[in-house]
């Protein structure tokens, strides 16, 4: 019990010392992500720990996986900063869980079981957060894949009506008011660059890299190979691509429907068990 008490005090003192050492050092960096990540009060301390222990360098392979997901979610320009903040969040959660483990063991007169449970959660919660990040990335890609066929169809209609590909992309952005769409968010940024007279090839390549999806890369490649020729060749290529994208959208919708139905199995089982208890309990009491 004494060991747990000393360890708790030591961890709290270390946190206070690190908080004083990192005071105002990361204010601007933390302020930028104030509304995006939890446990922001611990962010300066966690960032200081990451810097001093060189966690980014020593755990390069694990951090690279996180950064790849951040590139997909926020683009290459903001990926590194988000990787730092997400890693700081993992450190904060781990530190709090370890302190909580010692505190629980101290309050229960040195119960080793509760200490072990707390240490287990200090590993489990960061893993859960990384999996949650993977789910966000997958959900973003699914949203883009669901919206891409409609975008291609709109471009086909506008090009058939006499618009250039550049004008068609800008018109698609103007006609869309969905602010929660990741595809149109990236497309809106690309349209702003096109209106600023940036090179169409550069803009479209950057758009493909930001989306980080093979189907978007195929779409941009198809457009870039045929947009100078225009006419029937571009329309035929886009129609063929549209057909493939709609098939993928159908398969994706079918998969999401199956996942939704499988998630209902557990609640239905609980309801079934509850009904069996309600029906069977009176019979058991009579017997």
Automatic annotation (TrEMBL):
<dbReference type="InterPro" id="IPR018076">
    <property type="entry name" value="T2SS_GspF_dom"/>
</dbReference>
<dbReference type="Pfam" id="PF00482">
    <property type="entry name" value="T2SSF"/>
</dbReference>
<feature type="transmembrane region" description="Helical">
    <location>
        <begin position="7"/>
        <end position="25"/>
    </location>
</feature>
<feature type="transmembrane region" description="Helical">
    <location>
        <begin position="37"/>
        <end position="55"/>
    </location>
</feature>
<feature type="transmembrane region" description="Helical">
    <location>
        <begin position="84"/>
        <end position="107"/>
    </location>
</feature>
<keyword id="KW-0472">Membrane</keyword>
<keyword id="KW-0812">Transmembrane</keyword>
<feature type="transmembrane region" description="Helical">
    <location>
        <begin position="113"/>
        <end position="133"/>
    </location>
</feature>
<feature type="domain" description="Type II secretion system protein GspF">
    <location>
        <begin position="154"/>
        <end position="282"/>
    </location>
</feature>
<keyword id="KW-1003">Cell membrane</keyword>
<keyword id="KW-1133">Transmembrane helix</keyword>
<feature type="transmembrane region" description="Helical">
    <location>
        <begin position="264"/>
        <end position="284"/>
    </location>
</feature>
<dbReference type="GO" id="GO:0005886">
    <property type="term" value="C:plasma membrane"/>
</dbReference>
<protein>
    <submittedName>
        <fullName>Tight adherence protein C</fullName>
    </submittedName>
</protein>
């Amino acid at each position: 019990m004494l060991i747990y008490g000393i360890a708790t005090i030591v961890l709290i003192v270390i946190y206070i010392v690190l908080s004083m050492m990192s005071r105002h050092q990361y204010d601007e960096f933390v302020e930028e992500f104030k509304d995006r990540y939890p446990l922001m009060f611990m962010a300066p301390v966690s960032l200081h720990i990451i810097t001093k222990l060189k966690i980014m360098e020593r755990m390069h392979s694990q951090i690279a996986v996180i950064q790849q997901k951040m590139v997909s979610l926020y683009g290459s320009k903001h990926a590194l900063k988000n990787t730092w903040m997400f890693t700081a969040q993992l450190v904060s959660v781990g530190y709090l869980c370890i302190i909580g483990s010692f505190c629980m063991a101290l309050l229960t007169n040195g119960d080793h079981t509760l200490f072990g449970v707390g240490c287990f959660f200090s590993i489990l919660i960061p893993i859960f957060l990384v999996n949650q990040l993977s789910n966000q990335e997958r959900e973003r890609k699914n949203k883009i894949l669901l919206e891409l066929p409609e975008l291609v169809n709109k471009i086909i209609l506008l090009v058939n009506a006499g618009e250039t590909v550049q004008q068609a992309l800008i018109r698609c952005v103007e006609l869309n008011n969905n602010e929660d769409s990741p595809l149109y968010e990236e497309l809106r940024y690309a349209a702003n660059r096109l209106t600023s007279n940036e090179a169409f090839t550069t803009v479209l390549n950057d758009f493909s890299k930001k989306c980080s999806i093979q189907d978007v890369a195929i779409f941009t490649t198809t457009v870039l190979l045929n947009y100078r020729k225009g006419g029937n060749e571009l329309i035929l290529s886009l129609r063929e691509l549209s057909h493939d994208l709609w098939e993928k959208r159908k398969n994706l919708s079918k998969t999401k429907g199956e996942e939704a139905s499988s998630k209902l199995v557990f609640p239905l089982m609980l309801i079934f068990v509850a009904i069996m208890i309600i029906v069977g309990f009176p019979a058991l009491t009579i017997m």
